[in-house]
Amino acid sequence: MILEIGSSIETFKTLTFRRGLNILLAERNETSQETDTRNGAGKSSVIQIVHFLLGGDKTADMFLRFPEIAGASFWGEFEFSGIRVRVRRDVSNSGVVYPDFPSGIPDGLMATTDILGLVKVQNDDWKAWLGHVAFGLPLERKKPPFNSPHAPTFRSLMGYFARRRENGGFQSATQFQKKQSESAQRIALSYLFGLDWTLAIDFEVLREDRQRQKAEDKRLKAKLDAKTNTISRIFSAMTAAEAEADAIRKDVSNFQVEQHFDELVSEADAEKAKLEKLAREAARLTTSLRHLKESLEQEIPADADAVGRVYSEAGINLPGSVSKRFDDVRIFHESVLANRRVHLGEELASVEARLGEVDVEKSIAANRRSAILRQLEGKGAFSDLAAMQQRLANKEEAFARLRAQFEDAQSLQTQKTKSKTVENSLLLRLQNDLAARSDTISEAVMAVHEARTALYADRWGAFEINALPSGPEFKVEIESGNSGGIANMEIFCFDYALYKVVSKRLGGLGFLIHDSHLFDPVDSRQKATALELGALLTAEVGGQYIALLNSDEFERLEFPEGFDARSHVLPVVLEDTPEGGLFGFRFG
Fold first, then answer.
1. CA distance 399 to 90
2. Which of 202, 197, 170, 168 shows the shortest CA–CA distance to 185?
3. Cα(172)–Cα(163) distance, integer angstroms
């Protein structure tokens, strides 16, 4: 609960709060246009100062960055779970807070004393203590489940009870600032509503694992082509690459280097060329030999008697001189034929002799070439070995790359399967948890119902906590219509229920603050009802409901008979003028 807010700034207007409903009004000047800090009366700055005093980062609130504030300090008096404390925090040394406990330093608070005798606490230790007394968080966070980086902290819970518009606090009921992730919302709300919040953490761990899987899947796909875009194709290519590497490796292991390899190869090539040349010569000689033999067979002596018989049969008797002439011709022809036979015989013998020589030379060349090839079998030059080894290295590299890709793909596939199994298990556990905590959920549902029916009796509405594959879903909904303030009143109903549940379960902060920005688009009747609901809520569970409103809007509100809203207005009224604002001056 907030008792008092003040500052070392002399013109700062100290604010004193009380139990129940507190209405802080701001008079709006007709010539001014309100912003959060520079030109406004300072309503939003009240919430920012509360955050600053309760461990908030000073960089999160713009007004703390102005030079006029640099040397200032702020102080506040609070009561948490019956423990009163007055705390001061300097803008220039925001890492330290100075708490003053009338009843003495409580157990568990890590405090020291400075040279002036003032009790001082590191801001982190201050937040840890606040989380302990307000929300039941342990002071020691080294043990599970609070040692998880996702575990709820004081600052991850406090924002729901003091939303800031400039941080996006009025955009969604379940989100009190823009940078608050969906998983952070689920963890915080599960804790505050009394659910098994460790399940929400497990869902977040699963989400992170799947994000890593997606990144790994994208990285793996970037290395693959159409031929290796599935795990089975990678395995096929890997198997083939391994076999090819083994074959080359075997060749390398059997490979022998022949020192004169190149010379022997040249000689073998020469012998081969010689064999080819001799073969061509043998073919020519064989053809010549066949022609010579055919010529010898065709050389037949002339038959002179055959001519005489032809004439005799014709009835012609040749004279003796003609017969003699035929004999002379026959003798001459036989002489020529004899000479040609001698010549053809000599040529035939020569061809046969050369053909025999060619056969011998072919045999010699073939034997030498065979001997060289036998000598070179399984051997090679150093350059051949190097080339073979390079091919082996290339194949081994390809195999290793494919094997790594296969192992990555196989691991990724296994992870995806496990993730699906984990998701199903978590979903079942969440469903069982929600069923087991139906009484707790019913309390929250009825709290939202109370606020919603008071604000919009004629509209359907609901508060749901659903079990989704991504984790618990918290959802408040009021049937929309022509009213533009429905979404804002969904936030009001949600905060109303959260404050009621947390106050009863954990004690809580003892306050709920709403800025006028929440009510800006809301109809007057709903504004008045919301203030009355705030008063009724604090009367039931204790603490404070603090509403920061513009006076002109407040004056137009019509409250039900018997509800004296004016009695809840704070005596300090802020004005939208340089001197009348919260700080008593304008920044900049």
1. 64
2. 197
3. 11
Closest CA to 55 of 115, 112, 113, 134: 134
Q: Is the Cα torsion angle 308, 311, 313, 315 positive or negative in sign?
A: negative
- What pLDDT score does 254 carry? 75
- The pLDDT score that the predictor gives to residue 371 is 83
Compute the distance between CA of residue 260 and CA of residue 380 in angstroms, rounded to an integer. 9
DSSP letters for 246-258:
HHHHHHHHH-EE-
Helices and strands, number each (H, E), in the chain: 15, 15
- CB neighbourhood size of 492 (10 A): 27
What is the model's pLDDT at position 37? 40
User: What pLDDT score was predicted for residue 305?
Assistant: 64
**Which ranges in 165-196 belong to alpha helices (H)?**
182-192
Q: Mind listing the pLDDT tens digit for each residue in 410-456?
A: 888 898 899 999 999 999 999 999 999 999 999 999 999 999 999 99
Which pLDDT value is given to residue 36? Answer: 41
pTM of the model: 0.75
Determine the longest span between alpha carbons in the chain, in angstroms.
183
Residue by residue, DSSP assigns 518-550 as HHTTS-HHHHHHHHHHHHHHHHHH-SEEEEEEE
DSSP assignment string, 54-88: TT--GGGSGGGGSGGGTT-EEEEEEEETTEEEEEE
Respond yes or no on whether the N-terminal peptide bond of residue 145 is cis (omega within 30° of 0).
yes
Chain-centre distance of CA 198, in angstroms?
24
Ranges of the chain with pLDDT below 70: 29-40, 60-62, 257-262, 298-311, 317-318, 320-330, 332-333, 336-337, 376-380, 382, 385, 481-484, 588
Integer angstrom CA distances of residue 61 from 7, 50, 181, 263, 584: 16, 11, 20, 88, 19
Contacts of 131 (CB under 8 A, 6+ apart): 137, 153, 154, 157
Question: Cα(540)–Cα(324) distance, rounded to whole angstroms?
Answer: 170
Judged on CB neighbours under 10 Å (0-12, 13-18, 19+), 140 is exposed
CA distances from 110 to 124, 126, 139, 155 (A): 10, 8, 10, 18
**Distance in Å from the first CA to the final CA of the chain:** 33
The tokens describing 184, both together, are 């952070």
User: Using alpha carbons only, what angle is made at residue 126 by residues 121 and 132, rounded to the nearest 5 degrees?
Assistant: 140
* 57/1 Cα distance (integer angstroms): 21
